[in-house]
C-alpha cells in the first residue's frame, strides 16, 4: 500500500460510511445530499486509485462518474422538488469541503502525471466534478421548479 491507495482508502471509508449512513437514515433532504456526496468522494478516490495502482482505465471511470453523478442528483432534485420544497437541504459547508477535496486530488494527480494528454483529461474531470457538484448542490438547496410551474429570472 502506498500513499495514493492509503488516501483513497481513508476517503472511501470515512466519506463512504457517512454517505451510506446519510442515504439509509434520516429525512429526505439528508438522503439527497448524501447521494451527491457519494459522487463527490468516489470520483477523486478513483483518481487516487488509478495513480496508486497505475491503472489509467480508472481515470475513464472517474470521467464518466464526474459527468453522470451530478446529472443524477439533478434528476433526483427535479423528481423530488415538491417533497423538498418545504424543507430544502442545507449543506453549504459540506459541498465546499467536497469540492476542495476533489480539487486537491486532481491537482496532486496532475503534478504526479506531468504534462500531456493525461493531465488534460484530469483537468476536465476536475472541472466536471467540481462545477457539477456545486450546480447540483445549489439546485438542491434552492429547489427545482415542479412539473406545472416555470421559473423566470
Short description:
The chain has helices at 3-24, 28-53, 57-79, 81-85, 92-113, 117-142. It is mainly alpha-helical and 153 residues long.
Structural description of this entry:
35% of the residues are buried. The protein has one domain. It is mainly α and 153 residues long. It has 6 helices and no strands. α2 runs parallel beside α5 (92-113), α2 (28-53) packs antiparallel against α6 (117-142) and α5 runs antiparallel to α6 (117-142).
- Element order, helices and strands? HHHHHH
- How many distinct beta strands? 0
Overall structural domain count? 1
> What gyration radius follows from the Cα positions, in whole Å?
16 Å
Low-pLDDT parts are none
Count of helix runs: 6
Q: What overall geometry do the principal axes of the alpha carbons give?
A: elongated
Strand percentage lies at under 5%
* Residues in helices, as a percent range: over 70%
Q: Please give the alpha-carbon distance between the first and last residues.
A: 52 Å
Major sheet = none
Task: List the defining traits of the structure above.
153 residues; mainly alpha
List the helices and strands and how they pair.
Layout: H1 3-24, H2 28-53, H3 57-79, H4 81-85, H5 92-113, H6 117-142
Helix pairs in contact: 1-2, 2-3, 2-5, 2-6, 3-6, 5-6
Amino acid at each position: 500500500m502506498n500513499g495514493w491507495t492509503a488516501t483513497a482508502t481513508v476517503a472511501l471509508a470515512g466519506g463512504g460510511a457517512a454517505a451510506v449512513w446519510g442515504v439509509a437514515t434520516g429525512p429526505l433532504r439528508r438522503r439527497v445530499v448524501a447521494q451527491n456526496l457519494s459522487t463527490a468522494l468516489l470520483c477523486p478516490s478513483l483518481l487516487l486509485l488509478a495513480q496508486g495502482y497505475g491503472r489509467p482505465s480508472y481515470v475513464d471511470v472517474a470521467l464518466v462518474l464526474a459527468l453522470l453523478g451530478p446529472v443524477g442528483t439533478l434528476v433526483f432534485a427535479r423528481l423530488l422538488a415538491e417533497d423538498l420544497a418545504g424543507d430544502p437541504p442545507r449543506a453549504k459547508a459540506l459541498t465546499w469541503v467536497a469540492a476542495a477535496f476533489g480539487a486537491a486530488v486532481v491537482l496532486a494527480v496532475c503534478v504526479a502525471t506531468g504534462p500531456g494528454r493525461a493531465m488534460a483529461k484530469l483537468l476536465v474531470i476536475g472541472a466536471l466534478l467540481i462545477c457539477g457538484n456545486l450546480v447540483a448542490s445549489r439546485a438542491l438547496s434552492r429547489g427545482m421548479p415542479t412539473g406545472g410551474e416555470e421559473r423566470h429570472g
